[in-house]
Design brief:
mainly alpha
Amino acid sequence: MFPDYSVIAWLLIVFSVYLTGVSKGGFAGGFGTLSVPLMALAISPTQAAGLLLPLLLVMDVFAVKAWWGKQSNAEVWRFVPGLFIGVAVGTLLFGSLSEQGVRLALGILSVVFAAYMLLKPVAKKPISSRWALPAASVCGFTSFIAHAGAPPMNMYLMPRKLTKETFIATCTITYAVVNTIKLGPYVWLGEVNMTSAWASLLLVPVAWIGVRNGLWLQSRVNEALFYRLVILAMFLVGINLMWQALS
């Protein structure tokens, strides 16, 4: 059965999918986290998450193809165990979680981190890799709840002092891993179903256009400006999540 959404709902969904595609292409990656909250203005957060996951997997195919070979494999592998932990916790707690509480905590975390990155002194050493497991676990959990894995991932990866290309590629591969891990639990819990699948299929062209535009934009933005945009995106994401939680 095809979903019976209002015109406003479809406009928000199309814009959110396009925004996610631009993020997947590597331009201001934190913007993708806005998608579920934006869609949730018109449909339930569960419907939004279920509709978006198949599209994320399609975008991952495009994005991984574009960025493969430029990632830090060591950083990706450090994240994998924690991603499984976070998704497992999200699956077990599904139905008993307060989505508003998760959004509020994630929003505060995003705003605090953005402020820290803007005001902190220049670090002499990158953050220790020992923080990969807790960061990845939080990433897996928040990604499972609302496809909002960017803030905890950025909190770990940005202080690792990767180049722009390595940072984007590492995020891209890691997102593809966590989205693949989530698919089984989403189907099992009914978040991905035939109704959401029809809507997802219809939106594949929008996802593809978004990814291509993101690739075009990132190649024309210098590295210093890129990181400022990521920090700005995290701040905006945080404000949006806090607003959603308290509204």
